[in-house]
User: Which sequence fits this backbone?
């Protein structure tokens, strides 16, 4: 396993903190994703788009409240990023 990259964690944490201050419409990104309904995603562990959407919804809950503390190595930024991608459509 590779050691965590501090720079990548810091960049993503900064972007997530900034996105928390911008008004957004919850769940429109995931709704748009489901509307497109592309062909099944073979090779990534999901045989249906619905499965991917369900996993994204489960992983990224409460992303806007995750503390992402520097002293903890910004632990949780990956899940917060998935939650942000799932929820946010900037208005």
Assistant:
């Amino acid at each position: 396993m590779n050691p965590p990259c501090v720079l990548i964690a810091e960049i993503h944490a900064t972007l997530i903190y900034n996105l928390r201050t911008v008004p957004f419409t919850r769940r429109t990104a995931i709704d748009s994703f489901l509307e497109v309904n592309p062909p099944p995603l073979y090779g990534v562990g999901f045989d249906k788009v619905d499965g991917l959407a369900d996993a994204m919804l489960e992983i990224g809950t409460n992303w806007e409240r995750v503390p992402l503390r520097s002293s903890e190595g910004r632990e949780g930024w990956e899940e917060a990023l998935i939650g942000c991608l799932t929820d946010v459509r900037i208005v």
Notes: The two ends are 39 Å apart (CA to CA).
